[in-house]
Input
Amino acid sequence: MKTRMVGWLSFLLLLAAAAASWAADAPKLALQAGDLVAVCGDSITEQKDYSVLIEDYLLMCRPAASLRTVQAGWSGEQAPGFLARLARDVLVFRPQVVTTCYGMNDGHYGPMQPATAAVYRKAQQTIVEQLKKGGVRVIVVGSPGVVDVDAYRRAQPGQAAVYNKTLAGLRDIAREVAKDQDVLFANVYDPMMDVMLKAKKKYGSAYHLAGGDGVHPAHNGQLVMAYAFLKALGCDGRIGTISATLSGTTAAATAGHTVVATAPGSVEIESTRYPFCFFGNPASPDSTRGVLEFLPFNEELNRFCLVVSDAKPAARYQVTWGRAGKEFSGAELAKGINLAAEILDNPFAEAFQKVHQAVRVQQNFETPLTKDLLHNLAQRHAKDSESQRAKTAAELVKQDAELFAKAAAAVEPVRHTIKIEPLP
Output
């Protein structure tokens, strides 16, 4: 127990030094209309969770038009292993954007060794070089995340502290490679560590952020990972702003939203751009809601705002959005409230889940697609000519594109009404 407490204190000191770095402003939006984003990594990526959340965001929150995502995770993989399969499993999709997340396996689950650091650095450098040669415009080198301070090797106190120190070292190498190669860096480690320690203070030590096994995050930790990559890509979080008056005489909406009708204290909107939605019991690691008070996802990536210009500053108002509502002051409404953060059970939830499931169907296909059908194409079609194998690969990629098209088509317009009623 004493060893574990020392580890916790060391992590808190590390967090104090790192807080400014992980919360720093992200670069300008790196995505362009029509980009294909390949999300690559080890078994944590193959879980198809943070990769699905990224695709959810790119499809529904729409930082740029017509974005597509493909998932290419491989269980147990280390950075050199990805390098060996990069061309046949990833570049075949001709992505404009590639994110990588390696290090969890590269550290070999023990103290950092000089040889470990050297192999990881060289592999990361070569991956970036090969992606550039392959025509990838935007490369995001992601750091590894963390192991859970309670769930990781429960019978061996202190081991989580040892391995998180190794993972922090690999984070630093990933950052240095990204800087040296002039590509983007996603700091996954620091927000995961910060959120994990804060969430455990509220929910208890059994609330794991890096998974029940201490390594593979549940939905809570996966949301933190998605946040890190979306920030690295420069997503600014401006989902939309609805401007209204209590009189109902005027109302306006930003791009992706159209005012359908107005009435005193009410405005009806049709939206093709969704705010990000969160589900589940906040106290469960399988929910994306429990970490929101410790992670600035809504503040930085998910702002769907209501501004009421003629609300009386000292008065109180009930804002109802769909079936749920909340009370605000007139001053808050005049300044603007973030509906996406304030009312989680909102009119987009059902539509969001529909798209989410279609995305999961697509990414479920992509695991056998990249790990078998494309990876073993030469062996499966050994008798075919090179041109025939290329045609087969193109047909497989086309099947994936068709599944993506179904997910994209599921993003249908949502009609919703916002009511603003003065309280006695």
